[in-house]
Specification:
There is one protein chain. By secondary structure, this protein is mostly beta strands. The chain has a single domain (26-203), classed as Jelly Rolls, CATH 2.60.120. Helix content is 2%, strand content 45%. The chain contains 1 helix and 15 strands; from the N terminus they run βββββββββαββββββ. The chain has one helix at 106-109, and strands spanning 3-7, 12-16, 27-29, 39-42, 46-50, 53-57, 72-75, 82-91, 93-100, 111-116, 149-156, 159-164, 167-172, 182-186, 193-203. Strands 3, 5, 6, 8, 11, 12, 13 and 15 form an 8-stranded antiparallel beta sheet that branches. Strands 4-7-14-9-10 form a 5-stranded antiparallel beta sheet. It has a two-stranded antiparallel ribbon with strand order 1-2. Strand 12 and strand 13 (167-172) form a beta hairpin. The longest helix is centred in the middle third of the chain and has 4 residues, at 106-109. The protein is globular, with a radius of gyration of 16 Å. The model is unreliable at 1-22 (pLDDT under 50).
Amino acid sequence: MKRIVFVTALGGLLLAGCSSPHRSLKSVALFNGVDLDGWVVEHGGEWTVEDGVLVGRHGRGWSTNPEVSGSWLRTEREYDNFLLELDFAIEGNSGVMLRSGLERNPTFNGYEMQILSDHGRTGGKYPTGSLYAVVSAKRNMSKPTGEWNHARILVEGNLIQIVLNGELVVDYHEATRRSRGYIGLQNHDEKSVVRFRNIRLTGL
């Protein structure tokens, strides 16, 4: 079976045991920097594009109830195995949904990479970079509120790896909730403002 691991020092991927070792992997932009083409708003909230940046405000409805969804923005199509790269800046609370479905709460029917304004904070259960309610990040690598962070998220089979600002913080091998789903951006609450840019996906 194909095995993919991060090589953070090189900023790339090492593909080992691939049945087609010379295969070219194509990266595509999921966000065009102009409008919401390719995305779908779920359960309200406000999404705008400002100076090439995707901005989420006035989120609503989020709770820890697995049966109820809050506001989020999702891709039009579903994905199975991929490398997702993006920059984010946060004031408050947000997240990135991985292989999520439309039924009930996407944080729990798929997975959510946690995003918080928690720079320098220790002792939190699920700091930025964690898989929310699943596994905590090995280290809190978030930058100060409002500064840009870079995330690289590998989803392949039962594996989810997250590299945040150059450090591997999640290496999870039991991702069995769904084999395919939407990629999403959480719009958490009225006080939170989240910004995304350079959202790119490489299909595997």
